[in-house]
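Consider this:
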Amino acid sequence: MAMNSILNPDDIKKALDAFKAVDSFDHKKFFEMIGLKAKSADDVKKAFHVLDADNSGYIEEEELKFVLKQFGQDGRDLTDKETKAFLQAADKDGDGKIGAEEFAALVRE
């Protein structure tokens, strides 16, 4: 499943363009710009499964680096600083990875 089937491709493109600059990524603004924040819990869960590239049930730090590429080919890799900040914001139980519930809570922030 691609993000285009969940979200508006124009919104995705605008958001990817907005965060092209290195160290500019802000997950709150990004989720709002792509329209994920306004989506149903089911759609947020679908997005989680797309980002969970290895189907482990978690989004690990390595998968977070490539999160923008999961939204579109124009997406860049996140820097280590951005990746760690994103993980820290979502990982409420401190296990070093993001579960589906943590992801849903992060999107709704």
Notes: The beta strands are 58-60, 97-99.
